[in-house]
Amino acid sequence: xxxxxxxxxxxxxxxxxxGNMGYGIDPEVVKGIAQELAEVIAxxxxxxxxxxxxxxxxxxxxxxAGMDRATADYIGMIATVMNAMTLQDSLERxxxxxxxxxxxxMQELAEPYIRRRAIRHLxxxxxxxxxxxxxxxxxxxxxxxxxxxxxxxxxVIFKATKVDGVYDADPHIYPDAKRYNSxxxxxxxxxxxxxxxSTAIALCKENNIPILVFDLTVRGxxxxxxxxxxxxxxxxxxxxxxxx
Length: 244
Description:
The protein is α/β, with parallel strands linked by helices. It has helices at 27-41, 59-64, 69-92, 115-123, 141-151, 185-191, 198-207, 221-227; strands spanning 7-12, 46-51, 98-102, 111-112, 127-131, 156-161, 166-167, 179-183, 211-215, 233-235, 242-243. It is globular. The protein contains eight helices and eleven strands. The mean pLDDT is 91.
């Protein structure tokens, strides 16, 4: 079966790695993600990953408690590297060649982020995991995902979350909330739908990179997304606004 994309960027939140735990990393969850990624790589699709660090440290929360915001964000960047290395280990244990590139120099642990080198790794069938965010405080890993997707010419961003798409209201609070099948960038920004932060949405809009939001906890959804199956919510410039 043919795939719908050649090169994708997968955005994983740190919370996605902790499963039902209240903190940290659930090895079984990471193992399951790695196995899914291995299946997708076997189809010839090139995958880059941006991983968050909220399961270990949240810079915004620490800043609100009085910590210097820039310092808090740098600590959060280090947390993303911990997640990146954990995911790398799980992938390589099942035979998937992987490279971690960080926006902050950590030469004993990972490569520095170099755009051309990242693209070359992808062309050779390696998974590239981007850690340490963009290397700058005050920017989220969502913005990093949009930035890296543009830099490596990714055709789409997969935002894998714990919900099955974007809703017009919080479905946990409002049982009658409706899920969108598709959305425009403009509607996301106008309605403040929190798909990604506004900087990330603006970057995707400027570079015409669609965003597919779907539920990571459903086994096989990454593969379904690559095949172009109708799952989650698609955000793009040419999309119509439609609800389930």
